Amino acid sequence: MSSLAETSPTHDSPSDAKPSDSSRSNVLALWVMRALALLATLVCGYLVWVALSGGDAAGCGGTMDCDEVLRSKWSKWFGLPVSIPAMSLYFTLLLTLVFAGPRAPDNVRDLAWTAIAGMTALTAAAGVLFVSLQLFSVSKLCTWCITVHVCGCGLFLLTLVAGYGATLK
């Protein structure tokens, strides 16, 4: 009796079953992306809590004045902390990354990588925008915000490196 992998036209032959170095590195990139998305989601969650509680962010002072950044006019969007839509985006990205691996059906994986490309482009653009605002408008930096934006830019670069998942198949 033959297995599905042996009979399916979309899978490699059994002699090709051993993953190549390229596919292993792309799977590693996928796991790094998942870790970055999780970190960004958690940090955004912390920033939501700080903003809604009116408290002070931990570990900031001097040039890294998180409280001044988090209370600036740029920290709100339609009256809500920008960390709320950011957390939603990173959590959605994290969920989408679950469907981007080599075990997902081709059509699901392709759709996931299309969504990931769009979301990571948005995270990188937001990172550049908000770091620029911190530098040139607020004249202070927030360690927590910078962490999120580094994750976002890293996710975008890894999306480009992983080739939108083309070699994860």
Structural features, described:
With 169 residues, the protein is mostly helical. The protein has helices spanning 4-7, 21-53, 66-70, 83-98, 106-138, 143-161, and strands at 76-77, 80-81. Strands 1-2 form a two-stranded antiparallel sheet. Strand 1 (76-77) and strand 2 (80-81) form a beta hairpin. Helix 2 (21-53) runs antiparallel to helix 6 and helix 5 (106-138) runs antiparallel to helix 6 (143-161). The two termini are 24 Å apart. Residues 1-21 have low confidence and may be disordered.
Order of helices and strands: HHHEEHHH
Trace the largest sheet across and list its strands.
1-2
Cα shape? elongated
How far apart lie the N and C ends? 24 Å
Main sheet makeup: 2 strands, antiparallel
Mean pLDDT: 83
Radius of gyration: 20 Å
* Helicity, as a percent range: 55-70%
Low-confidence runs of at least 5 consecutive residues: 1-21
Number of strands: 2
Q: Which structural class best describes the helix and strand composition?
A: mainly alpha
Helical stretch tally: 6
Approximately how much beta-strand content do the residues carry?
under 5%
Blueprint of the fold:
Layout: H1 4-7, H2 21-53, H3 66-70, E1 76-77, E2 80-81, H4 83-98, H5 106-138, H6 143-161
Antiparallel strand pairs: 1-2
Helix pairs in contact: 2-4, 2-6, 4-5, 5-6
From the structure above, extract its key features.
6 helices; single chain; 2% strand; 169 residues; two-stranded antiparallel ribbon; mainly alpha; 65% helix
